[in-house]
Amino acid sequence: MKRLLREPLVHFLVLGAILFGVNAYAEKSHSGADRSKKEIALTIDDLSQLVLVFRSQWRRDPTPEDLRLLVEDKVQEEVLYREALALGIDKDDTIVKRRMAQKMQFLAEDVAAAREPARDELAAWYEANRDRFASPPRVSFRHLYFSPDRRGERARYDAASALTRLADEPEDSKLVASLADAFMFQDYYRDRAPEFLGKEFGPSFALAVVKLPAGSWQGPVESGFGWHLVYVDALTPARAPAFEEVEADVKAAWLAEQKVQAWRKTYEELRAKYKVLLPAPAENASANKASANGDTSRIQGPVSSSGRGS
Question: What's the domain range around 207?
């Protein structure tokens, strides 16, 4: 018996009996069109959705009492919504307008998301957008810092002079440390992408470093901190992966683009139905005010915006 009471189907039957009783009472209280306006009809899908939400939140099936409370919450929401509409509370409400506008956009985007792309179509789209999926270059390097705060205008000159002295020196030469200034961050960076270096040193430094040849001291290269000599250990060039490696990402990007295009197309079609009227320019507004006061000397022509004459 206890097992039977735990069955969701039994819960639905009990809930159905409750709803039947509510409907029977409503039928006695109202008739004709008035009754239909006051009816709140919940479908099996509605009830199933309530049960699914309850399960996801509480990790168990709802009891008959839980179901009754869930239905009452749903009914309360619908009652308050209908009464709000009847009172016109939705009129000129920015939040309501924004929410409805968002739902229209979601509906337009869902049309695009409903279509499953063919694999050949995705592959062709990938070829046209290959750069979007390319792995950025990565570089490992050591650098020497020459500080403008300490050296002033001689910072770049000192860096160039040091480069001459280091021309035939290895990366780990003892001479290296004696030529430069202390740097507030790292002296060595391993396997870094330009995006990271751009945030650390500035965009121009990042672009310059990934173009330097490996195996020798190069520079001077300017950053947001000053001047640097750079010794590139290793450079991994940018790489565009094969379609098969990123097929899932390609499909996600394709769907996102389709949604954008579907929304743009839908909005353009909807927008074409409307004519936008803007308020009169300030000078016309002044002219209208002057006219109202009997002064026509400032009126130079008919008003062509809203609040307009012919």
Answer: 135-236
